[in-house]
């Protein structure tokens, strides 16, 4: 896939990671003179994300990888898409926009009110989870609406989702019995 962009190409090198709609991809070619770069798309990436729906001229969110020496002012986003969701409602309220997304129960279990979710690479705060509908919602303030692609999407379109890594680690630890081992150790100490 070839993408036209200017700012993300500052200091770019072959092999760098650039997230495209929240999907961490590897720069395979770039041309700073024409302001474009190319990334490879593996079959698994196309199966797991909404990138397969992009057409020539589609607008996308782009984000360079975080340098460990920079200030961190938000959520921890890896660019590892966990799956997709479908926009089921978009409702304005004042100059803000409510967005409701339906997703699979396997992802919804990691989504909590006031927790974070990454939608097409935009880290957002979840407002409410609707378990019975397999949905969650969030609100975009006016400033964010002007900087991301989500408001340009239509009801019925797919979005890439990345859930909180901490929730996935906790689930994995519980599956491996680590939590019960810790509890047993703590009771032995008491």
TrEMBL record:
One of its GO terms (molecular function) is riboflavin synthase activity. It is an enzyme of class 2 (transferase). Gene3D superfamilies: 2.40.30.20. SUPFAM superfamilies: Riboflavin synthase domain-like. It comes from the Eukaryota. Lumazine-binding repeats lie at residues 1-75, 76-174. Keywords: Repeat, Riboflavin biosynthesis, Transferase. GO terms for biological process: riboflavin biosynthetic process. Residues 1-75, 76-174 form the Lumazine-binding domain. Pfam families: Lum_binding. Its EC number is 2.5.1.9. Pathway: Cofactor biosynthesis; riboflavin biosynthesis; riboflavin from 2-hydroxy-3-oxobutyl phosphate and 5-amino-6-(D-ribitylamino)uracil: step 2/2. Catalyzes the dismutation of two molecules of 6,7-dimethyl-8-ribityllumazine, resulting in the formation of riboflavin and 5-amino-6-(D-ribitylamino)uracil. This is Riboflavin synthase. It comes from Kingdonia uniflora.
């Amino acid at each position: 896939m070839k993408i036209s962009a200017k700012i993300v190409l500052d200091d770019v090198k072959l092999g760098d990671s650039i997230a495209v709609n929240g999907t961490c991809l590897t720069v395979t070619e770039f041309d700073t003179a024409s302001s474009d770069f190319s990334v490879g798309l593996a079959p698994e990436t196309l199966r797991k994300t909404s990138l397969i729906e992009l057409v020539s001229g589609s607008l996308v969110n782009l984000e360079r990888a975080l340098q460990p020496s920079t200030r961190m002012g938000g959520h921890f986003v890896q660019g590892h898409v966990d799956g997709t969701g479908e926009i089921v409602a978009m409702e304005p309220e004042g100059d803000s926009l409510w967005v409701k997304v339906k997703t699979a129960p396997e992802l919804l279990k990691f989504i909590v009110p006031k927790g974070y979710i990454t939608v097409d690479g935009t880290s957002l705060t979840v407002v409410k989870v609707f378990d019975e509908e397999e949905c969650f919602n969030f609100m975009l303030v006016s400033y964010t609406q002007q900087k991301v692609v989500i408001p340009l999407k239509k009801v019925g379109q797919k979005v890439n989702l990345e859930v909180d890594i901490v929730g996935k680690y906790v689930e994995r630890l519980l599956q491996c019995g680590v939590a019960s081992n810790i509890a047993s150790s703590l009771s032995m100490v008491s």
